[in-house]
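HOLO CASE FILE
Compound: adenosine-5'-diphosphate
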Amino acid sequence: MKKPLIVQKFGGTSVGSIERIHQVAQHIIQAKNSGNQVVVVVSAMSGETNRLLDLAKQVDSVPDARELDVLLAAGEQVSMALLAMTLNKMGYKSRSLTGAQANIVTDNQHNDATIKHIDISPITELLEQDQIVIVAGFQGITERGDITTLGRGGSDTSAVTLAGALCADECQIFTDVDGIYTCDPRVVQDAQKLDIIDFPSMEAMAKNGAKVLHLPSVQYAWKNRVPLRVLSTFDVNQGSLVKGDECVYPVSGLAIQRDMYLIKVAKSSLELIEKQCRLIGIAIWDVIEHPDWLAIVVKQDAYSKLELVLQGKVADHHSISLLTAVGANTYELLHSSSQLLASNEIVTIHQKVDEWSLTIALLPESVDYAANLLHQAYIKPSKALVCLQKHAFLN
Ligand code: ADP
Ligand code: ASP
Ligand code: MG
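Model generated. Tokens follow.
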């Protein structure tokens, strides 16, 4: 009989030291000894991708995109080899593969590539030899043979896409929290762990900065029905399952997106700026039309690139953060949330409503306090949340 197959992904903190790599190896061995075939995806050791990025920026504020991918992909290559060595030393046959060796083929969009297809034969061959296969996350290769990376946090997407291609029984994302919470538990201490979260809510959370899952990983899992679970490397519990096509909670959670820039622009240059952004692949989150000024909002890390292209057309810019409430009824919070924030002396710069979400632009220093206030007002008292969770779990 064919053995079940699971894909386990370990993030940067989980492989952050040799001691932690040992802990990761124990999880893998446990899965293997329980009769599973195991494919593992690893991130770079914590801090490593930032270190490499910083080196590149010392050379050029806008590094060559192709070379940057060659550099950043090295981070994952270190952890995959260390983990494979650890498992071999512990008596478990293991082989590591880079994205290219695992035939993870992407488009040509350096630094933010999309996986087009995976030829699973090198992995299945190793599994047939009873090996544990370790794959470098976050990276792939173009048809032309260039190394690409999938955008920050992209190892989740490597894992989920591999799970889909291999028809895995489950994709387990091991991280430094024990599941998906109603808000980042490092910001809101009262945040509640969700045993189950539906796909539309999780997609809206990931789109708006909840980095517990990389957005394309959620979208791929939803579309391709990959059983997806988030759980802790350091704690034993069931974690959170992402499941269901309907957004069932009035307010499922809050997401925080830091490091955004509000850039004031002259009305006459807006069209040109939008065009340039499209050409160089910068996403404009929104255009804000204030009675006294006009501004675009983009991620901070896109700014150097934008400045280079616009040369002088950017009047002034400042940092903002975005706080997003996600759920089926979030549009109903439009007025009450801004009243609540105003009564606590928090300035709302802008609000934007989407399907399943309401986003509030704030000054960076007030976003954590605002998240706690909104959580307390709209999520914590929700007994319905617990009932809905039970209902979802039983189905
Ligand atoms: P990894 O390195 O394992 O990929 P990440 O740092 O990318 O881990 O993602 C895990 C982090 O996501 C947590 O440490 C937590 O601070 C943050 N996070 C943000 N929003 C949430 C949320 N709703 N639930 C759980 N964690 C969240
Ligand atoms: N190492 C990459 C990053 O730091 C990818 C990942 O961790 O998922 O973004
Ligand atoms: Mg991550």
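CASE NOTES: The radius of gyration is 22 Å. The chain has twelve helices and 20 strands.
CLOSED: yes
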